[in-house]
Specification:
Distance between the termini: 64 Å
CATH topology of the largest domain: Cytochrome p450
CATH class of the largest domain: Mainly Alpha
Radius of gyration: 26 Å
Shape: globular
Number of strands: 10
Oligomer: single chain
Number of domains: 2
Helix content: 40-55%
């Protein structure tokens, strides 16, 4: 197996002790020089083993199919770093015949397994899910912003947290939240409408003067972040943050600053492959300063929320069924762990849906006929945006095209393009032995486009695949895919997204409210070719420069 560098340091330290203890007296300088010499000597031989011998001649994974070419020392590292996250994996799944596992080489030829086929995914995510965990450097990096909540907990701790939080995401409870999702969508649409009218005199390229009066350029990614933050606050935590009404909302600005991909952040994530994260986190860098300031701010807000709820609970006045209320009533969480849970749901709960909304608007702008058909269904089935009539789960459930479009957007542009696991023990995937310490990659951006499961049109944006062709059409429920593991946007099994039904309901309500009132078209025609939309590595697949689109108020609704 590949030799860990921390073991090299430990052996060097032990060797230094035995060498110097045989020649007393010794000085600090002799001790340091001996340690450095033994470390360099061992590192040379270990480097030869790890980089050139083990991956090519001794690894039990060396016979697996993988991409050709690449660097003699860094494998496919350059390709992975230069292309948007998940795109190289999509290309490999398309072009490399495989039985569910593709091996590629990362920095210094470290091996990684791309898990693609249904059998391997079932083993990884369901049958042997607790044989795999998030790598320690990933967990430490995310925990600074998310706390060690359900997303980062492992083993028995994860089982405990999930069991105690599941009631908050029960099917019946989420159904009760649809009216509040729709209400927030209405509030956002009204605020966007006011913004467009206020800026109507700004220059646009809309030829029709009357249409120009009702058209503005909006960065829909910013509006999506504001509305989803308010939704997770109100429906998830019992607090309206007011981000829709206040573009300078402090909490929203905090998240925007830390989720923005920076050069320093990218360098630190790369160094974390070799240097412990706790060391990197102490470096006097602006990125570290921003993350720690954001963490303190968010944790302070979460503690205030918890204390308010605890006071209600003590007075027997806690009637809400939001995430925090359910967690408090379970009695299984300490205050600090509750803070971690809230940090997790605040960040993950709004960032992922905001990303889905951003790409949803983009795909509707690219496909005006789909947008037109969706608007017709929304206007036929739902009340006008200025109406006070409540929208329920029953209304949304009886909109087949809306649900088809939402499912296709989530397939085509999964908010999280890639996730990494590390084998915690020697284990097996689809009959292949996987050594402890092996890094494994699950990429929705690859699996969701796998032609072996989705058919020849897997790379096309086609909501029709989700529309039933008749009362007996069962394939539409899976989009026509041949496996449950073809759609990986929410993963599967014990580590699947606990908020799946919450997120899908929120997304459907928001998209319906937006498309009912607005017509979207691309500001930059070059962006009709998706390759011209720059996406840089990050937790979610957000466009680097936002998503600025012409947004026109459509009369009559």
């Amino acid at each position: 197996m590949a030799f860990p560098w921390r073991v090299v340091a430990a052996i060097s330290l032990i060797s230094t002790y035995f060498i110097t203890s045989r020649r007393p007296p010794w000085s600090i300088s002799q001790l340091l020089s001996t340690f450095v010499a033994t470390w360099i000597l061992q590192s040379f031989f270990v480097g030869i083993w790890n980089v050139f011998l083990y991956p090519f001649y001794f690894s039990p994974l060396r016979h697996l199919p993988g991409p050709t070419g690449g660097s003699w020392i860094n494998g496919q590292f350059k390709e992975v770093r230069e292309k948007p996250t998940g795109i190289p994996m999509r290309e490999w799944v398309t072009n490399i015949p495989n039985d569910g596992l593709i091996r590629y080489r990362f920095l210094f030829n470290t091996e990684r397994l791309l898990v693609t086929g249904p059998k391997a995914l079932a083993d990884l995510l369901v049958a042997r899910s607790y044989d795999f965990q998030k790598p320690s450097n990933v967990r430490f990096g995310l925990s600074r912003l998310l706390g060690v909540g359900i997303l980062l907990a492992e083993g028995d701790e994860h089982k405990f947290q999930r069991r105690n939080l599941l009631p908050a995401f029960a099917f019946r409870h989420v159904k009760e939240l649809y009216p509040s999702f729709w209400q927030k969508g209405r509030e956002c649409v009204q605020a966007m409408t006011s913004s467009i009218i206020a800026d109507a005199q700004n220059e646009t390229s809309v030829a029709d003067p009357e249409k120009a009066k009702k058209t503005g350029v909006l960065d829909v990614s910013v509006w999506a972040s504001r509305v989803t933050l308010d939704i997770i606050g109100a429906s998830g935590l019992g607090r309206d943050f007011g981000a829709i009404q206040d573009p300078e909302n402090e909490l929203n600005q905090t998240y925007r600053s830390v989720f923005k991909v920076s050069r320093q952040g990218q360098i630190l994530s790369l160094l974390a492959l070799f240097i412990p994260e706790w060391v990197l986190s102490k470096l006097p860098l602006q990125r570290n300063t921003n993350v720690y300031a954001a963490s303190r701010k968010i944790r302070s807000i979460c503690r205030d929320l918890i204390r308010e709820k605890k006071e209600k609970l003590a007075r027997n006045e806690l009637k809400e069924r939001d995430i925090l209320s359910v967690a408090l009533e379970s009695g299984g969480f300490t205050e600090e762990n509750l803070v971690d849970q809230l940090m997790t749901f605040l960040a993950a709960g709004h960032e992922t849906t905001a990303t889905a909304m951003t790409w949803g608007v983009y795909m509707l702008a690219k496909n005006p006929e789909i947008q037109k058909r969706l608007r017709a269904e929304v206007r036929e089935k739902l009340p006008p945006i200025d109406s006070d009539r409540e929208v329920t789960s029953l209304d949304i459930d009886h909109m087949p095209y809306l649900n088809a479009v939402c499912n296709e957007i989530l397939r085509y542009y999964s908010p999280v393009p890639l996730t990494i696991r590390e084998a915690a023990v020697d284990t097996v995937l689809a009959g292949q032995k996987v050594p402890k310490g092996t890094m494994l990659v699950i990429s929705p951006w690859a699996t969701n486009f796998d032609k072996s499961m989705w058919g020849p049109d897997a790379h096309e944006f086609n909501p029709e695949r989700w529309v039933p062709k008749g009362p007996d059409d069962k394939r539409a429920a899976s989009g026509g895919a041949t496996s449950n593991y073809a759609f990986m946007s929410f993963l599967h099994g014990p580590r699947s997204c606990i908020g799946l039904s919450f997120a899908k309901a929120e997304f459907a309500c928001l998209l319906a409210s937006w498309v009912g009132r607005f017509e979207f078209s691309l500001k930059n025609k070059e962006e009709e070719d998706e390759r011209n939309v720059e996406i840089r590595g990050g937790i979610t697949a957000r466009p680097v420069r936002g998503m600025h689109v012409y947004t026109t108020i459509v009369d009559g609704w």
